[in-house]
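Progress report, Aim 2. The chain analyzed during this reporting quarter is listed below.
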Amino acid sequence: MPDEDILGQFRNVNQRFSGAGTAARADAERLNLLVSRLARQPPHDPDEVPPRCIALLTAASGVPSPEDACSALAGVLGLAVPRGRSAAGAVRKYLSGKGPAGGQLFWRAYSAIVPVDPPVGYAHLANLAAMGRIDLVLTTAWDPLLEVAFGRVFRPSQYRVLTRGEFDDSGFADALLQRGIPQIVKLNGDLHSNLVTRGDREVSPFAAEPTIMAALVKTFSGATVIASSSGRENHGEDLGLLATLAAEASLVCNVGPAASDDPYYRWLNRHIRITSNAVTDFDAFMIELDRQVGLAARHRFRQGGRAVRGEMIRSLEPDTARSVGTFKRPWGSGEVFTTNESCSVRVITVDEAQKISFHRHLHRDELFVALDDGVGVDISDDEFEDGVTGDSDRCIESVTLEQGSRLLVPRGIWHRLRGPTAQVRVLEIAFGVYDEEFDIDRLLDLYGRADRAD
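Predicted structure tokens for the chain:
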């Protein structure tokens, strides 16, 4: 598929964020307000409850409908669905007839038909939730892709999934109104609640339950709402109903299909390397929203050009947020870099006299552990709004790590690894959304990969 066709999926998003053109001005103002709201810090007063930020989603593009999923389940279970009867009814009757073993049979069959790879937009939605920017996701989808994406960013105790049908609707409505940790709310239940938990009956539409509707009205009051049907098929009346209930929200941003005639903008050009046509308008919107919120938050609270080398090294000391633990045993000792936490790990080898690009990530922190002596690291907290003068720019600091030395590079910090006099290796542990395709800005690069200014 030509790059131009793939990049067409991103045109509307950048039209909205750039604000170019009279027609886009209102959307740009609304999205700038959205970014501003999401980037603000939580109130200092613990008794002050901030307004909610809610994402409304339907099923991701390519996910089978509940009916098709039930048909697939019936096939895996070896069931013949009688004419005039639904596959859901046949599966439900079969599983209920198996007693306690029905649940085990369900999960075995479910694992064969469930999608396992969430859209890239879900990863950035999860990152916004992890940063405290979005606290509630309402979805009418049955699939577990949101949970998969959140599980890659959160520990299990750090978020909650509320599924209709797993307990009574009154308790569901009460739980919907609770605050504290991010929630994924499956308004129409999922396959397990519809086929196993409820036994002989399916979960009713959420619109038919007055207690849930009343809870939703309260939830939307004064909230900021992101509503998307982009890349989704047959979302029916659910999203329209939720959008109507969201009329009491203070700000509603809709993500719709891309317009084919919008011009290209700088962010698009930076991502000309895109080669996958699986990216929807929702994905593009969430990638750029996550990026813009990260930049806005950084502009407000960055260290203002102060030296960052000492702060990054001290950030690994005991009793800090990212401390490295040590232990001793009769046979020796060890170091603990992370425990029961989602992360990405790799070993980077930089050849003699070579250096990686001077770059930054907005959605992940990186812990570097030198495996050899003489690892060169260049770092900067500057925004380089007037450009960079080159490798000797006065805003770039340099440090040399010896074997075993550690350096934590927070998201938003420009950095580069070097092998000044010999080949060197570095253990890299990344915390956050590991998005190699989109989450990188290159400022200097020996190999012609630096982002263009135009």
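The chain is about 30% helix and 20% strand. The first strand starts at residue 53 and ends at 57. These observations will guide the mutagenesis work planned for the next reporting period.
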